[in-house]
Design brief:
Helix content is 61%, strand content 0%.
């Protein structure tokens, strides 16, 4: 039985024990590929959301907003 998740101010993410075990079986290259795939998915989802929410924005404006949000507003 897994322990309940404990979140506090210093803990920003939680990985279930089962998923941690799966990740341990992956090579560094496989883990990196998973990370890149997750980022691509985040970009696609955010782009679709912004396009729907702001039909008046052109593709360049959407791209700037996606980049800004995924970089936490870093220039």
């Amino acid at each position: 039985m897994t322990q309940p998740f404990r979140l506090d101010a210093g803990q920003i993410e939680v990985v279930e024990d089962r998923m941690a075990e799966v990740f341990r079986t992956k090579t560094p290259a496989q883990r990196l590929a998973i990370g890149f795939a997750l980022r691509r998915s985040a970009v696609r989802l955010l782009r679709a959301h912004l396009t729907y929410a702001h039909p008046d924005w052109d593709s360049q404006r959407v791209a700037r907003e996606v980049a800004g949000r995924l970089s936490h507003g870093a220039a």
